[in-house]
Amino acid sequence: MATKPSKQLEIFDNPNPERDYTIHITLPEFTCLCPKTGQPDFATLELAYVPEKSCIELKSLKMYIWAFRDEGTFHEAVTNEILSDLVAACQPRFMRLTAEFNVRGGVYTSVVAEHKDPDWTAPAVVTLP
Q1: Which residues are catalytic?
Q2: In the chain, what's the furthest Cα-to-Cα distance?
Q3: What pLDDT was estimated at residue 4?
Q4: In angstroms, rounded to a whole number, what is the distance separating the alpha carbons of residues 117 and 129?
Q5: Which of 12, 33, 82, 89 has its CA 20 to 30 A from that of 57?
Q6: Can you name the residues that pair with 96 across neighbouring β-strands?
Q7: Alpha helix segments (H runs only) across the chain
């Protein structure tokens, strides 16, 4: 049983690399610290990505997210750091990270960061009747 957070992300082989499909992951227990006050910030992270050759292993993702609990960081910085680390780990075709932070001082913050592989073309949207 893991007793310490870790920023070591693990991956596994994409079982269907020939197909574009989207993986959605919700992480409702993200916490970090306000770099100005030291008070905790709470957020729900919504991750959506189209994998290429590999996928993010979920237990390592939980341990990775846990690693931010005692770090002082701005919402914009931590959202982009997480996206960069996830992209570096699995090299997806496309990845979007949305961080919905809980209210602080009467202000809600939502940060959206995206990565798109320049060689990937998104499939056409299909509208069903």
Answers
A1: 34, 41
A2: 52
A3: 86
A4: 31
A5: 33
A6: 48, 114
A7: 58-66, 75-90
Amino acid at 66: W
- Per-residue model confidence (pLDDT) at position 87: 98
pLDDT in tens, 80-93: 999 999 999 999 99
- Residue 28's identity, in one-letter code, is P
At residue 17, the pLDDT reads 97
Q: Which stretches of the chain drop beneath a pLDDT of 50?
A: none
CB atoms within 10 A of CB 90: 22
Pairing of strands 11-13, 54-56: antiparallel
Best CA proximity match to 114, nearest among 92, 93, 96, 94? 96
Q: For residue 2, what pLDDT is reported?
A: 59
The CA distance from 55 to 13, in Å, is 6
**CA atoms of 65 and 73, how far apart (whole Å):** 13
